[in-house]
Amino acid sequence: MRIDIVTVSPELIKSPFEHSILKRAQDKGKVEVFFHDLRDYAINKYGKIDDYQFGGGAGMVLMIEPIDKCLSGLMEQRNYDEIIYMTPDAKTLDQGTANILSAKKNLLILTGHYKGVDQRIRDKFITMEMSIGDYVLSGGELAAAVLCDAVIRLIPGVLGDETSALTDSFQDNLLAPPVYTRPAEYKGMKVPDILLSGNFPKIDDWRHEEALKRTKLIRPDLLNK
Ligand code: ADE
Predict the structure, then answer these.
(1) Comma-separated ranges of CATH 1.10.1270.20 domains in the chain
(2) What would the pLDDT profile of 63-73 be if each residue is shown by its tens digit?
(3) Residues lining ligand 1, CB < 6 A?
(4) What is the whole-number distance in angstroms between the Cα of residue 196 and the centre of ligand 1?
């Protein structure tokens, strides 16, 4: 997979890709990630990329021209399966969407800043708009990093068996069951006996029951999906 990320703050988003599973995925050749600085497409030598919004109102809007130049240049070089705009006024990312995106070849992600981007960019280029939750971040960079993490870890071969994504929360619309590790008893707090029993079918049943209990309590909405 190839992911191109267009941003006004490349430095803000690079770091998560330099560690842990996202780094390993790149080292293994499972994904290539490229960052594109919108300022390289500024409309003047002072690096102008944003302007006041028509009609008045607080906050700057990212201008159409720099984004058009950047996206058009990238789109001339390859076909993108999706051109994704990170914004709070969109559908929320979920595991199903991450699963679908993990099977794609080329993704282009545009991150907004300030008041967002000129609507004409959204109308002309964007094929998918995505929020990571009902709150507003200072920019779309962290949201893009979240999306990339959720997607990249699902690419076959990125995770080993020991960290298989299939047992994650949400893969079956259930929250994950509780997990424990050694010691089996700590300051009088015991690990449930069943997990020490070696009876794996029973352990599976117990985990499923616990996952259901947790989901009913914390996220009953998931059970109706
Ligand atoms: N940009 C600002 N807030 C965001 C959010 N919640 N999701 C995606 N992009 C954003």
Answers:
(1) 167-224
(2) 999 999 999 99
(3) 86-88, 112, 131-133, 135-137, 140, 143
(4) 43
